[in-house]
Automatic annotation (TrEMBL):
Protein family per UniProt: Belongs to the short-chain dehydrogenases/reductases (SDR) family.
Organism: Telluria mixta
Stored InterPro entries: KR_dom, NAD(P)-bd_dom_sf, Sc_DH/Rdtase_CS, SDR_DHRS6-like, SDR_fam
Gene3D superfamilies recorded: NAD(P)-binding Rossmann-like Domain
Keyword Nucleotide-binding among record annotations: no
PANTHER family: DIHYDROANTICAPSIN 7-DEHYDROGENASE
UniProt KW keywords: Oxidoreductase
Protein's UniProt name: SDR family oxidoreductase
Pfam families cross-referenced by the UniProt entry: adh_short_C2
Amino acid sequence: MFELNDKTAVVTGGGSGIGKAIAQLFARQGAHVHVVDLNDAACVQVVREIREEAGRVTSHACDVSRQADVEALMATIGPFDILVNNAGIAHIGKADTTSEEDFDRVMSVNVKGVYNCLHAAIPQLRANGGGVILNMASVAAWVGIKERFAYSTAKGAVMAMTLSVAKDYLQDGIRCNSISPGRVHTPFVDGFLARNYPGREAEMFEQLSKTQPIGRMARPDEVAALALYLCSKEAAFITGTDYPIDGGFITLNT
Ligand code: NAD
C-alpha cells in the first residue's frame, strides 16, 4: 500500500521542513521526485540526502511567485503525475499593521505561487491522463490565527483554489485536495521564533506547543505520511477536500 512506483512528483518548497519530509517519503515509496525551492543550496542538499538512500530525485531552483520561471521549470520537468504545492512563507500582523508590501509578498508566494504551479502543471497532468494535486493550507484558514492576517487570508485562498480545481478537472482524472497542518516543528517555526522572540525561543516554543490540544507540535514526517496517503492510489475516492492534521487544534480548543 501507498507505493508511488513509476510516479513522478513535483514538490515545491522541498528544501526544508514539510516539503523536505514529503520529498524524502515519496522517493522512499518509489517516486522520482523533483524538488523545487527558492533556496538552491537547501534544495541541492535535500537531493543529496535522498540520493544517499538511493532515491530518484532532481533539484530545481525556482521562485514559485514568478510565472515565467514556473512555466519554464514545468516544461523542463516534462510529464509528471503528482504536484505538491507546499512552498509558503509566514508573516505576523493584523489587518491594520500589515503593510501593503508585506501583504503583496505573502500573496505572491502563498497564493500566486500556487496559481502559477497550477497554471503550468494542469495542462501536463491532463495530457498525461490525470494526476493528483495536493496544496498546503493551514489551520489558519479554518479558524484564523491571531495576528496572522495576510497568512490566514492566503491559506483561505489555497482552500478555495483546491475546491475550484477539484471541480474543474474532475473529468480529466485530476484529484485535488489540501492539508491543513497545525503547528509543525520546522525551520519555518524556528525562524519565526528567532525573529520575533530573540532570547526567548525555548519559552515561546513551549507556549506554542501547548496551544496544540495534543500538547506538542507535529513532526514533518507525520504531515508527509498524510500527503503520501492523499497522493496514492489508495485515496482514489478522495477529491475536493481538506484534511486537518492539527492535534485537535480546530475542534478541541474551546
Ligand atoms: P519551511 O520554511 O521550513 O520551508 C518552506 C520552504 O519553501 C523553504 O525551503 C523555502 O525556501 C521555500 N520557499 C519559500 N518561498 C519560496 C518561493 N517563492 N519559491 C520556492 N520556494 C519557496 O516551512 P514549512 O514549515 O515546512 O512549511 C511548508 C508549508 O506548510 C508552507 O506552505 C506553510 O505555510 C505550511 N504550514 C506550515 C506550518 C508549520 O507550523 N510549520 C503549519 C501550517 C502550514
